[in-house]
Amino acid sequence: MAKILKIYPDNPQENLVNEVIKTLKNGGLIIYPSDTIYALGCNIFDIKAMEKLAQLKKTKLEKAKFSIICNDLSHLSDFTRPIDTSTFRFLKSHLPGPFTFILDANKNLPLAYKNHKTIGIRVPDHPIPQLIVEKLGHPIASTSIKDDDEIIEYSTDPELIAEKYDHLVDIVIDSGYGDNVASTIVDLTSGEPEIIRQGKGII
Q: Number of folded domains in the chain?
């Protein structure tokens, strides 16, 4: 059964955040809030956790396109090829924010991302995922939670999310109702921003 932890942005309890960190380090899956929608996350360096995440999304790990959640742009060089000054300025002017930026990947990606030519980077404008990444010491893998509803594409009620994923994840962070608009996906691999999916973020 998934453990529900009520962690709110204005005053996140350190002991509860530490419990999330421990779960991630032990290969657990979490559901967490962001500046857009609720999402599934795990430790990017734990291959078994990454495989479980792929199974949840009904895809093979090598085909999965999981974003990497950072708390700032300091981790960019860990995963991406060197970027020019104008691209960095562009990123800095839009992050933190509701965007996923596609960048050219380098060869130092975690094992689960092996052979990926590009990588999606997110820096959510939300204190909880930022705090998780900061305390964990490195980014987490992430994928959005889709809803089966034909009208509402993304789940917003953490209690309903917890009910649905009760036996599939280890922790659900209840931070109140989430948004139902996903991030805007922007491809920066050509040097010019190309919107792949229009979401909450406006370029």
A: 1
pTM of the model: 0.93
Distance CA(154)–CA(140), nearest Å, equals 21
Instruction: Enumerate residues 6+ apart whose C-beta is below 8 A from 152.
Output: 180
What pLDDT sits at residue 157?
87
Can you tell me whether residue 17 is helix, strand or coil?
helix
The size of the chain, in residues, is 203
Q: What is the DSSP string of 97-136?
A: SSEEEEEEB-TT--GGGTT-SEEEEE--S-HHHHHHHHHH
Give the Å distances, CA to CA, from 122 to 3, 12, 87, 146, 160.
26, 21, 15, 18, 25
Write out the two tokens for 106: 């380098």
Q: Residue 114 CB: number of other CB atoms within 10 A?
A: 11
Identify the CATH number of the domain in which residue 123 sits.
Answer: 3.90.870.10
pLDDT in tens, 170-195: 999 999 988 888 999 999 999 899 99
CA angle at residue 11 from 6 to 16, to 5 degrees?
Answer: 45
Domain range for residue 67? 3-197
The single residue listed with the structure tokens 């500046």 is 35
Tell me, yes or no, whether 202 lies in a domain.
Answer: no
3-state per-residue secondary structure call for 50-105 = HHHHHHHCCCCHHHCCCEEECCCHHHHHHHECCCCHHHHHHHHHHCCCCEEEEEEE
Amino acid at 200: K
